[in-house]
User: Fold Glycosyl transferase family 1 domain-containing protein from marine sediment metagenome.
Amino acid sequence: ATALIRLRDDAELRKSLGSNARRIVEEHFDRKVCEKELLDYYDRIGIKRCNT
Assistant:
């Protein structure tokens, strides 16, 4: 409950946490990042790519 009260009362903290969360999502869950990770995984396990 203390943390929620702190968030309620501290606009700068809310903004900072939100910005950091957005950056993390964009870095790790961006479509291009996920696509590259998936293709790298396929390469590692031996699945051949289609040229479409």
The two ends are 53 Å apart (CA to CA). The chain has a mean pLDDT of 91. The helical segments are 2-9, 11-29, 31-45. Residues 2-45 form one domain.
